[in-house]
Amino acid sequence: MDTLIRGGESVVPINEDLSIIQKDNGLKFGTDSYLLSAFIKKNLRGKACDLGAGCGVISLFAAARTSISEIHALEIQQDFEELISRNASLNKLDGKITSVCADVRLVGELYGKESFGAVFSNPPYMKRGSGKENVSSEMNTARREINGTLADFVRAASYLLKFGGLFYVVYRLERSAELIKTLCYNSLEPKRLVTVYPDAESAPCLILIEAKKGAAPSLEMSRPLIIYGEDRKYTKDMQRVYDEFSLEHLFKK
């Protein structure tokens, strides 16, 4: 394992089965990536694509927890693309995960149309030039639309997906109207939606959407997922997400 780790990096356990190499001063995987991974249906099969894969955590979860046979993890930053490859090797998932250094705006040069049955993405949340920029160019690239807008990511997903294929995305709530409009414009019909709240007293912070290529309009919304309860302990729903690695219980009446 020592040969996989470079200077300025450390290995962080994710759960009892998976660990991840992270850059000490780089963007760390967070709750949004974990929730998106848990939202992906476990019975998915065939090939999938991860757009803007970062360090590859969503691909790792999908490779380990679903029936997907092959995942192409696209990341524009070469250092992180190479990190995805090492993370796959670390977890003995290099037979399922292929890292690709690529721009999501140019997926048509890499793959034929409708090449994948599923696509997932945790795209940059912030518009270019918005807010206080990070000192690190790596962090800016991961957080801001420097190498692709929300529309670019959605267009790429629509291009890659087969008819009836599923797109999984997590995004900031304040841009949810833009996300849903962009999905529908690109023939990706939102089918299931989860709204995430930090706690019962706060406004929602994230939405998770499962969209289907070419589907008719019909949206199922879960009950809200509240992360923290009293004393900053996980709520029962959030604890079930970790225990079952699934959000399916949120849709049960």
Quick structural summary:
It is built from seven helices and eleven strands.
Task: Give the helices and strands, then pairings.
Elements: E1 9-13, E2 19-23, H1 31-39, E3 45-51, H2 57-65, E4 67-75, H3 78-90, E5 97-101, E6 116-121, H4 137-143, H5 150-160, E7 161-172, H6 176-185, E8 188-199, E9 206-213, E10 220-221, E11 225-228, H7 236-244
Parallel strand pairs: 3-4, 3-6, 4-5, 6-7, 8-10, 8-11
Antiparallel strand pairs: 1-2, 7-9, 8-9
Helix pairs in contact: 1-2
What distinguishing features does this structure have?
single chain, nine-stranded mixed beta sheet, two-stranded antiparallel sheet, alpha/beta, Rossmann fold, 27% helix, 253 residues
